[in-house]
Design goal:
3 helices; 18% strand; alpha+beta; rod-shaped
């Protein structure tokens, strides 16, 4: 009986259980952090690609609806729905020689400058 009582009061096996729990918690935290970083990087790529594609289309066609259509196609390439992105064009090609296109994807904003 004495051996059984001393074994129950020992902490010998608890360190492995603690290690497994801490490892699982740490792994979940690292995966959540890397997922957020990946989402942010993907947002930057999508916004920059959308802004560049919109600017190219605007320079070639000089038509704002055509440029917006190109932005929607570029956003569709990244799997974005219409509420997920927004494109702003600073001025039309007819008004000024300098043009700026701003693309917002979720909370990320990128821009492209060009001439008409």
């Amino acid at each position: 009986m004495r051996w059984c009582r001393s074994r129950l009061q020992s902490d010998r096996g608890n360190s492995i259980i603690e290690f497994v729990f801490v490892f699982c918690f740490g792994l979940i935290a690292v995966l959540a952090l890397s997922s957020e970083v990946e989402r942010n990087i993907r947002g930057h790529y999508a916004a920059l690609s959308t802004a560049n594609q919109t600017l190219r289309s605007l320079q070639l066609s000089e038509s704002e609806p055509t440029a917006i259509g190109a932005a929607q196609q570029a956003a569709k390439t990244f799997g974005l729905q219409t509420p997920d992105f927004e494109v702003l064009i600073s001025a039309s090609c007819l008004a000024q020689g300098e043009i700026k296109v701003i693309a917002r994807v979720r909370e990320v904003e990128e821009f492209a400058n060009g001439r008409c």
